[in-house]
Amino acid sequence: MNVSVLWEGVYPALLTPFTADDELDIPLFEKNLHAQLEAGIHGFIIGGSLGEASTLLNEEKISLLQSALAVCQDKVPVLVNIAEQGTKQAIARAHEAQANGADGLMLLPPMRYPADARETVTFFKSVAQETTLPIMIYNNPYDYKIMTTVAMFEELAELPNIQAVKESTRDLTNITRMRNAFGNRFKLMGGVDTLALEALLLGCDGWVGGLVDAFPQETMAVYDLTKAGQLAEALEIYRWFMPLLELDIHPKLVQYIKLAAQATGIGSEYVRAPRLPLIGAERAQVEQIIQEALAKRPLINAA
């Protein structure tokens, strides 16, 4: 039985931990899940950009899904990311995710091909029509070079299972455009760590986070305080957090955030080739950011 996806709160875009032998590190994956659940997160996303989706085998994605479902035990929804080059492949991945118990999907536009508006809308509709799972469209023209515009969402609104948007345009005014156009037809999830508080203040329902993989309590504190209107308290943590959050908007965000998760004891730095672990001055710089943040880590009231 699927868990309802409310599209509210904090949804970590999960890292995929590997062993030194390049196998999935399921025990470490589950350790991270437990840390997230203890902090109070609201859902999980498997196999996103941070999860090194492009390097995962299909059976590995299913293994991660099954592990997450076993840990969550219907406490929170588990979503699978769909990021494929072709429509047939995307539909196949959606079928597999649904068959293996996923509660919802995050759906990217076609990979590698710069589809135009008609092609992109047709791609999204073709996948959505092949599943009953609720879907969040990932709108990230900065990284994926395809903008899903208000006009395109007007067409997508015809499909009831397209329910939410991961808002990663890096244009905060787009949040207001979407609200003005659709009201609450689409749930909006802020998808850029360095704009998370601003996105929440402008009306986003939740936050798809990256640094939450290393700092779940601090992420939840920013979210909870902002939603409670305790803006001064939220801003204090957010300002402390910002040097770490900036690790999420770098091309090597996977290596950077994995290093942070290793430093907090809920991850490891192992990545899958062609990525390589950080070395030299770059590694020292990222470690310095992490250690300076840890030295001043705020005391979060768990209550």
From TrEMBL:
SUPFAM superfamilies: Aldolase. GO terms for cellular component: cytosol. CDD domains: DHDPS-like. Keywords: Lyase. One of its GO terms (biological process) is N-acetylneuraminate catabolic process. Gene3D superfamilies: Aldolase class I. One of its GO terms (molecular function) is N-acetylneuraminate lyase activity. InterPro entries: Aldolase_TIM (IPR013785), DapA-like (IPR002220). The active site is at Y138 (proton donor/acceptor), K166 (schiff-base intermediate with substrate). Pyruvate binds at V208. PANTHER family: N-ACETYLNEURAMINATE LYASE. Belongs to the DapA family. This is Dihydrodipicolinate synthase. It comes from Spirosoma radiotolerans.
